[in-house]
Amino acid sequence: MKMPILIVLFFYIAISIFQISAVADALKLIFMTSNTFFEGLLFIISLFLTFTPFVGPILGIIGATFIWEWNIFFSALLFFWPYMIGFFFMVLRKNPNQDDASKIKSKDIEDAQILDEEKYK
Fold first, then answer.
1. What is the reported pTM?
2. Contact 48, 91 (CB under 8 A)
3. In whole angstroms, what is the distance from residue 43 CA to residue 75 CA?
4. What is the dihedral of CA 97, 101, 103, 109, to 10 degrees?
5. Residues 16-50 pLDDT 10s
């Protein structure tokens, strides 16, 4: 059971390295730095910005699209995959309130049938 966890961890770290690099490149593009010290400082800032919701992915898409010249669709897949998976599972999730509503409707139908039976007796 440990092996799948290690594989998932490996791929998560690999994707994170791509994301951090793209955000660092986007920050270098935005601030137009060519100084090595400032590039290192922007890299440290990108470590924190990469995992900030919506700010990190948007900066990453800018870096991957403009610096690496990736297709915007593939760069969006790289950065918004957790949101896409979360949305997918939200759509597929069974709504517990929906089951209660169907039970209430079926109980109402049974009550109506009982009333109809008593009416014709």
1. 0.69
2. no
3. 19
4. 180
5. 999 999 999 999 999 998 888 999 999 999 999 99
pLDDT digits (tens, 9 = 90+) for 70-98: 999 999 988 888 888 888 888 888 766 65
Pairwise CA distance, residues 38 & 90, whole Å: 41
Of 67, 79, 102, nearest in space to 19 by CA: 79
- CB proximity list for 72: less than 8 A, separation 6 or greater: 61, 65
Q: How far apart are the first and last CA of the chain?
A: 65
Burial class (CB in 10 A: 0-12, 13-18, 19+), 70: middle
Residue type at 36 in one-letter notation: T
Name the residue ranges covered by the structural domains of the chain: 2-93
